[in-house]
Amino acid sequence: MLLYALTNPVGAIPVFLAMTGRAGAVKTHRIIVLACAAVAVFFVGSAMFGKEILAFFNVGLDDFRIAGGLLVLVIAFEMFQAHYGKFIPRTDEANYSEVDIHGLAITPFAFPLLVGPAELSIMITLSNDNPGWLGKAFLAAAAVLATSLIGLTLWMAAAIERFLGRTGINIMTRVMALIIAAIAVNFIMTGIKSQLPGLVSR
Q: Is 188 within the bounds of a domain?
């Protein structure tokens, strides 16, 4: 649920529908499948090779935990304000007769609309918290499950928007934002306790 809430596919529905409104059903479904495949690759790759990624950049787990928590906190603030980022092109700029469907599915849908630095940071941190192959396999399975739910949400995007309306979507987004913010604070405090145990104990 953490990954699903963090990617916030429900909150991304208005943006998704605006960008695929003229793409047609077949192209829209292809975009969803390709985007979810890319999201799964990002998540599973981070889960399986999180430790190696940190070692390559010579970054400590607690440092990464604090940085990831801060990024997630920023995402939570944006979600609470119902902002979806400035990386989405305007609808009138999208010409679906010329656009590369594969490219659109990867950027901006998979990255950074659904998966950004904050989501990858969480996966890498969780991967380092579960160093065994069994833990990594569990994380990978959770990532695939979350990606499947994301795909299902996007597949039903039009129906969800009709049912909830823009107000309902904004309310759900803000509820998810509160949950994500609490998780981010926990990540930050855990990192600070490990880095500055004397300061925290006072």
A: yes
pLDDT tens, residue by residue, 85-143? 444 444 444 454 445 677 778 877 788 778 877 788 888 888 888 878 898 899 999 99
For the chain, the domain total comes to 1
Q: Is the pLDDT confidence value at 49 over 70? A: yes
Domain range enclosing 132 = 2-195
Q: Residue 202: inside a domain, yes or no?
A: no
Q: What is the pLDDT of residues 56-95, one digit of tens each?
A: 888 888 888 888 889 888 878 877 876 554 444 444 444 5
C-alpha neighbours within 13 Å on the C-beta side of residue 8: 33
Query: Does residue 125 sit within a domain?
Result: yes
Burial label for 29, CB within 10 Å (0-12, 13-18, 19+), is middle
